[in-house]
Amino acid sequence: MDKISIKSLVNGLLKFKGAGEESTLLGIGPMSLHVLKASFELAKEKDFPLLFIASRNQVDADELGGGYVCGWNQKDFVSAIRKTAKEIGFNGLYYVCRDHGGPWQRDNERNEHLNETTAMDLAKKSYLEDMLNGFDLLHIDPTKDPYEIGKVIPLEVVLSRTVELIEYCEQERIKHNINEIGYEVGTEETNGGLTSPEKFENFIERLKSELEKRNLPMPVFIVGQTGTLVRKTENVGTFNFDNAKRLAQIARKYGVGLKEHNGDYLEDDVLLEHIPAKITATNVAPEFGTEETRAYIILSNVEEKLKEEGLISETSNVRNELLVHAIKSERWKKWMLNEQGKMTNDEILKNKDLSEEILDIAGHYTFNDDNVKCEVNKMMNNLKENGIDGERFVINRIKRSINKYIDDFNLNGLTSRIKKLVNI
Fold first, then answer.
1. Are residues 77 and 205 in the same domain?
2. How far apart are CA 304 and CA 390, in angstroms?
3. Which whole number is the average pLDDT over 171-185?
């Protein structure tokens, strides 16, 4: 079908006002190839647009370190998306989005305490690769700063960096004759986040003024803090309906959609409140990776049963490989509570309960490890020999998780509704 720009998509959503018309878009973290397949299958079945949101740690240029998801750079990522869409027979709408682009957004850049000039230059290189490879939306997030840990980054600094990065991207877009792209600004982080309506509107007003001076486009989305917060494998925040509704009203006044991050693990009643709160889009990522990890553990348990029954001679080592590599990745630290994030790998390995918890939290960071892939393949072959389609089980588990958001966010049939609105 003809591609509707992400700006037109969001503008269409902002125009819906009738009962049953309004929807909240879902940004899906592309945690694996299985997540892509599950997403396309479900979107084909339920006729809604897909937004794939990739952080710089997940997908980035080879010269910047690549990504932990399938080892993808931007070209590989877009190629995998297109290939999967073709395999599934999906001819609807999908958008490739950069999540948390900007300086120090890669873990190694923060850990190395790169200076601002270097960090900004690397961010620009990453954005250029995004644009050259067909990304539709760029999240401009300059609020990660190794020199301001735990502090509120001054609004002037956030504003200055945001404008500089949008100006760079627009200059390069025009230089390379790239079609219009959308921008997302702001962050859910409290050290650079837009937590109050007053601060939120002040930022939009000042951003609008600076962009207009330079003849630059307004963003498509602005991220606001709705109270959500993911830790471990639950949402430990408290969704603030009144604040979310106020932020959405302010954003709409400027023709911008409110984007919520940290939408993982929310209960149905909270998700259903997103439409009356008029939240335009919500990002969900680790939840889908966790679902895939849990699916592998379930299949591993089945494999053990097959061994007990004498139906296979040798089991794979999936559980242990996932466990050890999840702990060694240390990517679980950002999701932990209190002092647990400061524990050493050896301390974790000695604590069985905590090790299992980290497997649940961080198993998805290991999917591209050669040892993990080898053991997963071995397990899948063992299951296949006994009439079990392990891959189908994994994909269906992920689809089940995504489907909750599709139903609660009234996304069923949204593509057809949008097409009618924009006369395509």
1. yes
2. 14
3. 97
